[in-house]
């Protein structure tokens, strides 16, 4: 069983945000999920985040969320860390999911602040403290605008004092806040960049890794970008970004997520399937445009 201290050391490199594949009837594609996990490991992912925002957890039942946790843990078999997203607006559901993650042998859990309702910083702090007190498992806090409750760098430094909070996925794209987070919390907690867009500057200023939503189908490219930063070759890292991921990122404004990632995976023959409501699939015209981008990136031969 991975301890919180061990997870803090292991949360480095490319942490793949796992897309949840569905069948055409919208049921879970269990075999497809297993294949995708193996594929990402083979291409160099350093860790898996299962059941996250782009894994469509908000469109799943509690039973489905637990099932994909179990599939991931059983498939990965401790080769790399598996972190399960236990985010929920109700602390008891969050604790229930975290206890299950620990029971099945997950390495850690990821948790946003409570969402939808606007809460105070003290309310957010007590939320994380309650999770810490209820379950002895490493926690990666996640600062995301999707929650509606922003975590300032000062607040991140505060929750870093909670024993099991060992990492933070910093999702802001405000460069000053990204830098301030390193200044205030970089020596207390493992900082993970929350998007490929900010990965190169974040890694340059002291972040230990980056999450990646696109590593479900372009793992090798994201891993190469990360490795270039670790070798101190930031020009190479930037070239990989702009010559590859950059055009895809611009397309995201048209297609949105997770629909774009799933469409790309389907085009490339990687199990993904449809999105569940309220997410809509791409139009045929957008799929055609996306196919051209994948060809120019060298992903589609």
From TrEMBL:
GO terms for cellular component: cytosol. SMART domains: DHDPS. It catalyses: L-aspartate 4-semialdehyde + pyruvate = (2S,4S)-4-hydroxy-2,3,4,5-tetrahydrodipicolinate + H2O + H(+). It is an enzyme of class 4 (lyase). Catalyzes the condensation of (S)-aspartate-beta-semialdehyde [(S)-ASA] and pyruvate to 4-hydroxy-tetrahydrodipicolinate (HTPA). Belongs to the DapA family. This is 4-hydroxy-tetrahydrodipicolinate synthase. It comes from Formimonas warabiya.
């Amino acid at each position: 069983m991975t301890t919180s201290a061990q997870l803090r050391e292991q949360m480095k490199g490319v942490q793949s945000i796992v897309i949840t594949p569905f069948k055409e009837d919208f049921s879970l594609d269990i075999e497809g999920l297993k294949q995708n996990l193996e594929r990402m490991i083979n291409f160099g992912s350093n860790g898996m985040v299962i059941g996250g925002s782009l894994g469509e957890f908000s469109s799943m039942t509690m039973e489905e969320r637990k099932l994909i946790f179990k599939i991931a843990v059983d498939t990965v078999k401790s080769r790399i860390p598996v972190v399960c997203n236990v985010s929920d607006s109700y602390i008891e559901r969050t604790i229930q999911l975290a206890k299950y993650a620990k029971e099945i042998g997950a390495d850690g859990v990821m948790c946003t602040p409570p969402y939808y309702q606007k809460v105070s910083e003290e309310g957010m702090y007590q939320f994380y403290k309650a999770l810490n007190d209820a379950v002895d498992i490493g926690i990666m806090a996640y600062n995301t605008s999707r929650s509606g409750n922003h975590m300032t760098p000062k607040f991140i430094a505060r929750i870093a004092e909670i024993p099991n909070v060992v990492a933070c996925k910093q999702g802001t794209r405000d460069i000053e806040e990204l830098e301030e987070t390193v200044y205030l919390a970089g020596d207390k907690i493992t900082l993970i960049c929350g998007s490929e867009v900010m990965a190169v500057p974040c890694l340059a200023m002291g972040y230990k890794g980056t999450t990646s939503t696109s590593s479900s189908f372009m793992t090798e490219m994201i891993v190469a970008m990360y490795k270039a930063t670790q070798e101190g070759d930031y020009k190479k890292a930037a070239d990989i970004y702009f010559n590859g991921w950059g055009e895809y990122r611009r397309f995201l404004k048209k297609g949105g997520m997770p629909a774009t990632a799933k469409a790309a995976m389907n085009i490339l023959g990687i199990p993904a399937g449809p999105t569940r409501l309220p997410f809509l699939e791409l139009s045929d015209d957008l799929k055609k445009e996306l196919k051209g981008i994948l060809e120019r990136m060298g992903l589609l031969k």
